[in-house]
Amino acid sequence: MNRWRGTLIALAALCLAHAATAQTAPLGDVDGDGYLGAGDVLLVQRWLQNGQALTPQQAAAANVVVDYANGAPLVDVRDLAVLMRRIGCQPAVCKEGGSANVPDCSYQPTYKSGPPPVGEAPLYGVCAGPRVLVDSGHFALHQIDRSFSGFAKLLIADGYDVRSVRWTKPFNGLPLTSFGDVLVIVTPRAEDPNSPNSPAFDPESHEANGIANWVAAGGSLLLIADHAPYNHVKDLVNLFGLSVTSDSYQIPGDGVSVEDGSINTTGDVALALSEGVETIRILDTVAFSPTGNPPPGITQIPILVGKSPVPNGAWIGVAITSGAGRAYISGDAAQFTAQFQPGLNATDADNQRFVRNILHWLDGSLSLR
User: Fold this and answer.
1) Contacts from 25-28 at CB under 8 Å and sequence distance 24+?
2) Less CB within 10 Å around the terminal CB: N or C of the chain?
């Protein structure tokens, strides 16, 4: 191992020098996304676990990934949790294209000025906040370097460590809490998007049960569905005592508001999530309804209540407490990012504050349950 690493260090130095002059992508960018991040770590881990014979270029890149962020070399490069702790916070990246949802790459998070409670400031120091893992698997429409880049920008500005991850096996086969503090699953769909009854989560391994059990054990989940085919989340939301509509509903341009009663402010959790929020811009949303009495250990707290044309009494945003964990479930993704349909970039709404409130509640900095 030491001889292997010594060779790699020499190769890495030569290749890094070349990269500095050629102004190419980072040497450790083995997954080709333009920057060094968690995706590169996952790929290098796969190489090493499979005993794959590496080319000199791959070996040099692998060594850069291992040693990325200054410090002593790692002892066990196969330990993914250690690798992820060693990778520094990544800057927000915004690439146009690759999605029908065009990102607003000019969006930059802003904070209102003035005395509290109007005044806002980042909750955490730079890269000092909890780690947020955004699932890039499950055939997700939104990716944090493209149409969901606004979400990453907002959280990074608030001090979070935001990473895109694509697991190679179902979630219930991984100790999620060793990798991150909040798991975000946004717009997952089934492998066959034309099959409305196909689940987004692997039924053979009972993946939905694994996610729900992880939440109950203390995990924090942000689950964001959307219009078909990104509403195949029935098997997961059912475990939280909810059903999801097959239809989607376009909310009028003024969004939802405290004034019209569609933003709930009753109860400690609802009041905390709506603090500093008067209006939220929403695009198309699916809706959720309770399937009956909540399952044991689960509390459902409606936060965004449907307004016409959403069916009366349906919810489009729900906070969940389950055992020792918590989840927020949304029927609309646009409110969480910045596209050319206004969401976080809407200057006449409070989407930025609302999304931050949700993350602060999920990460436990707002301890209300």
Assistant:
1) 26/64, 27/60, 27/61, 27/64, 28/61, 28/62, 28/64, 28/65, 28/68
2) N
- Those residues whose C-beta lies under 8 Å from the C-beta of residue 204, and which sit 6 or more positions away, are none
**Cα–Cα distance, 354 to 330 (Å, whole number):** 12
Which residues are CB-contacts of 125 (< 8 A; sequence separation ≥ 6)? 159
Tell me whether residue 348 is in a domain.
Answer: yes
Asked if 140 and 73 sit in the same domain, the reply is no
CB atoms near residue 348 (< 10 Å): 11
How far is the C-alpha of 79 from the C-alpha of 200, rounded, in Å? Answer: 28
Contacts of 110 (CB under 8 A, 6+ apart): 352
Task: List, in order, residues 6 or more apart from 92 with CB less than 8 Å away.
Answer: 144, 149, 152, 153, 156, 162
**Structure confidence at residue 31 (pLDDT):** 77
Boundary of a domain, candidates 56, 86, 116: 86
- Please check whether residue 101 lies inside any domain of the structure: no
Of 181, 214, 178, which is closest to residue 82 (Cα–Cα)?
Answer: 178
Q: How far is CA 80 from the centre of its chain?
A: 19
Other C-beta atoms closer than 10 Å to the C-beta of 178 total: 12
Judge if 168 and 56 occupy the same domain.
Answer: no
Task: Supply the CATH number for residue 342's domain.
Answer: 3.40.50.880
Q: Residue 344 and residue 334: Cα distance in Å, rounded? A: 8
pLDDT tens for each residue of 43-99: 776 776 666 677 777 777 777 776 553 333 443 334 445 555 555 566 778 887 655
Which burial class, exposed, middle or buried, applies to 359 when counting CB atoms under 10 A from its CB (0-12, 13-18, 19+)? buried
**Co-location of 22 and 142 in the same domain:** no
149-157 helix and 351-362 helix, angle to the nearest 10 degrees: 70
- DSSP code, position 161: E
End residue of a domain, out of 65, 86, 107: 86
